[in-house]
């Protein structure tokens, strides 16, 4: 083989790279010679990935349920990957910020538009049987989703809406006691914390508090205001943040609400969720009024937050009955 100028240049660059690390390039070339060619299935650990579904019952639709939730968590991981790039960027610009939020919006668009795959892909009878083997596990226990929320907004916006003004200047630990999702994970009969919530807090509270402190000045809302104060053009960024607000706080929870209506709605009393959460009050955004960027919305828009979607679902239910 002829050693072209291009090959010689690459060898020189490799030599410089390994010398800078105190390494011998020839040894690495030997390693390259003896190594097998990379395969697609090895690169993405396909066999391992396909072995990660372990149904607890013989009902075939349980595998659909498991796989969709695994896909969901992978999209959440992609979103957190972008969140970290934004928060830790040394010289953040509106352009970089906007591009990364667009990626997150693409992930949530895929999630919200694909939720029907799971909802329509399971027989109600099978779901209502195999779900009893999942107690007290619940999708409520997605730690990654909570981390996305913490990365996206001022921590005060994640409090129960009745406590936001009162605790606006409180420390993170005090605020955490009133984070909105705790109120959603109470036993329907007694009002006590569910086992689902206790498990969740025991596993993730330390991580959540650490992340909330780390993101106090590097959450998306804070970074947006910093760039705006510098005089950067944040118009495109504002549009993408509004989309993110709707995806995370309206479209995604309402996809779950629609699913709950289909599988758990029952006259005269609705079926409880596996985690014992009060899904009728917890999922609809019009009750929670969880809004990441109130400074990007009008009062009228916030007053109507999520209302139209929920009302349309409820109207569909009435028509069925």
UniProtKB/TrEMBL annotation:
> What is the superkingdom listed in this entry's lineage?
Bacteria
Pfam families hit by this protein: Trp_dioxygenase
Q: Which SUPFAM superfamilies match?
A: Indolic compounds 2,3-dioxygenase-like
Gene3D superfamilies named in the record: 1.20.58.480
InterPro entries xrefs? Trp/Indoleamine_2_3_dOase-like, Trp_2_3_dOase
What is the designated name of this protein?
Answer: Tryptophan 2,3-dioxygenase family protein
Organism field: Pedobacter ureilyticus
From the broadest rank down, the organism's phylogenetic lineage runs: Bacteria, Pseudomonadati, Bacteroidota, Sphingobacteriia, Sphingobacteriales
């Amino acid at each position: 083989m002829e050693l072209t100028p291009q090959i010689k240049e690459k060898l020189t660059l490799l030599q410089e790279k390994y010398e800078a690390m105190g390494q011998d390039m020839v040894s690495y070339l030997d390693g390259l010679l003896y190594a097998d060619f990379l395969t697609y299935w090895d690169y993405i650990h396909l066999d391992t990935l396909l072995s990660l579904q372990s149904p607890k019952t013989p009902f075939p639709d349980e595998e659909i349920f498991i796989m969709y939730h695994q896909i969901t968590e992978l999209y959440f991981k992609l979103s957190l990957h972008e969140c970290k790039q934004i928060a830790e960027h040394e010289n953040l610009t509106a352009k970089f910020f906007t591009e990364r939020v667009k990626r997150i919006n693409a992930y949530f668009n895929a999630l919200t538009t694909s939720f029907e795959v799971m909802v329509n892909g399971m027989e109600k009878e099978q779901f209502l049987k195999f779900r009893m083997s999942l107690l007290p596990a619940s999708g409520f226990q997605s730690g990654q989703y909570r981390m996305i929320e913490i990365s996206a907004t001022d921590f005060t916006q994640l409090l129960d809406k009745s406590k936001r003004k009162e605790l606006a200047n409180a420390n993170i630990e005090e605020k955490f006691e009133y984070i909105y999702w705790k109120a959603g994970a109470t036993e329907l009969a007694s009002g006590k914390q569910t086992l689902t919530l206790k498990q969740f807090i025991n596993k993730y509270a330390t991580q959540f508090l650490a992340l909330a402190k780390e993101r106090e000045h590097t959450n998306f809302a804070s970074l947006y205001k910093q760039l705006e104060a510098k005089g950067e053009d944040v118009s495109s960024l504002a549009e993408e943040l509004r989309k993110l607000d709707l995806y995370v706080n309206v479209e995604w929870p309402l996809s779950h609400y629609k699913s709950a209506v289909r599988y758990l709605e029952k006259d005269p009393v609705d079926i409880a969720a596996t985690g014992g959460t009060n899904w009728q009050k917890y999922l609809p955004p019009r009750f929670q009024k969880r809004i990441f960027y109130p400074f990007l919305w009008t009062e009228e828009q916030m007053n109507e937050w999520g209302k139209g979607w929920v009302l349309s679902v409820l109207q569909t239910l009435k028509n069925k009955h």
